[in-house]
Sequence to fold (554 residues):
Amino acid sequence: MRGLWQFTLAELRLNLRNPTALFWSIAFPTLWMSLFGALFSEPMPGFGYEGLNYANFLLPAGISIVILASAFIGMPIALTTYRETGVLKRLRVTPLKISTLALGFTISQFLFIALVIVVLFVVGKIFFDVQVLGSWLALLGMIIFGMVTFLSLGSAIGSVVGSWRADAVITQIIFIPMMFLSDMFMPISIFPEWLQPICHALPLTPLNVILRDIVYGVPIDNLWQLGILGGWLVAGAVVTIVFFRWE
Amino acid sequence: MNSAIVCEHVTKRYSSLTAVNDVSFSVKEGEIFGLVGPNGAGKTTLIEMIEGLRTPDGGSIRALGLDPNKQGGELREKIGVLLQATSIQPDIKVKEALKLFASFYEHTVGDTAELLHTLSLEDKANSRFRKLSGGLKQRTAIALALVNDPVILFLDELTTGLDPQARRNMWDFVDKVRKEGKTVFLTTHYMEEAEKLCDRVAIIDYGKIIALDTPRGLIEQLGAESKVIFKIEDSDMDAAKFESIKSVSRAEKSPDGFTLYTRDENAALQGLVRLADKQGFRLTSIRTESPNLDDVFLTLTGREIRE
Fold:
């Protein structure tokens, strides 16, 4: 594991220097939360939180966006760029082990997301008086589970996406549609019936639903959805292992 | 003297193409060894097999007694590598990159500030890699290759794409490394560079080593003659007249002037000057051309080496 700490630190620093990563991971969710927080005062109907504090509706969605943006935009772009420009090849002729590289890369993304979530929470607390009514421990656990799952999916995308213009493809084909279909901005019940099972199978849906239930402190009656998240986690890891290329 | 690198019957195929074809050679410790050939000759494939980045289809490779594929981890501790067109994380600063790479190794140079000094990078320590010029990027890449004080330094296309000044800086640098007693394995398609830097040169073409010797040895082996080229103000002279000069084997006349072929430039020049004196003609634009590695390549392959 020699080099792990320095590699993690370097990658974290590089993330903070990358304007694309900063925009999608920090500016976008913060602005989104502030805009919706200023425009609306009640949770949208159809989610089952009518009459409750609206700001609490914003926080879990913000957290989801941060996780999604970092894992699906920042990380695959970094990975694809590193492969295309030969950074991975250069690292390969050092004694740095691939397991150390993968771990360091994941931890740096993890710390980056954690940092952004703290920013988001502070913004939510100061401007909209966000309150976490459920268990903090459950919230933390769910955030970590979500991060690990989405980083696994992000590395899978980074491994599969070859020399395409990765950022455009990922945002247009996966990122934007998924945000709309996964019980974040609008309830799944408004979509046609044939589409709803697909919505439920998306990895972002369980994250949204469960994070929101925890923040609102309502009993979680859909723990089965954790299985969906777990399934995506495994699928992402398998795809990464099969398709990962140094060059 | 021990061998730093030993290759025996090394072969690498890519579907129908045999990139490296039954290549055997060894590199001595402390030697500057050059692999020279045109683009696509198999230089990079060969150097990357020794570095352990590619697996040979046949034959055996030992670097510092280690198998690059099976003992890659151990080998990578002891080698420094400059890849062709290396890149590192674009937004990393030079000094951060050095610190990062140093953290990968058990044994390092210790003082990275001195490394920056050796490569005249002190002013650029806080610059981001992607903002550096080609020459500075190359120097940074070399600093990274030296961070573990390697026993063997691999330099793939050290000066390709660099301007003449940056190229000369690189040559000076290789001289420095030579004095430290490191083994250097480099590839280039500039014959001049190989001739200037290398103790021994292997010429590779279509995946095969077609000649291997010291640059001098290769040129002498060729048996090519030097040329003495000049003009005379009254050019209405017969070329045969110059063949009487001692050591001149042949003289030719062309619209550009006269060319004398000789194995002893010195004697031919002296004879020429004496003849001019005696016969009272004026020599102009005298120059000599010694055979070089370009001629060696041309003779061996029937082609000129070009990018």
In short: Chain B touches chain A through 26 residues (CB under 8 Å). The two ends of chain B are 36 Å apart (CA to CA).
